[in-house]
Amino acid sequence: MKSMKFDDCVVDGRLALRGPIEAEHSDDLRDILLAQPELRIDLGGCEAIHSAAVQVLMAAKRPIVAWPTSPSLAEVLRLALAADGATPAAP
Questions:
Q1: What spatial distance separates the first Cα and last Cα of the chain, rounded to whole Å?
Q2: pLDDT tens string 65-86
Q3: Is 38:61 a contact under the CB 8 Å cutoff?
């Protein structure tokens, strides 16, 4: 699978994650978060996310400015990221 180009997903200090985020994207996700420590996370367009990518987000502890539109995915991510110190936005 071709790597996502997360650089194309950065707008106004937000990293907008869209579609499914596969395990193969975890290294790219880590790299952009390390390179741009001010980025906030926008999960509004995220349809699915591999646990490896969730672990990257947990380690990054970035503010979450938008949650997935899927209620079940949003709930799981809120719990995972809030438990690890990310700054979740209000539901």
A1: 33
A2: 999 999 999 999 999 998 655 5
A3: no
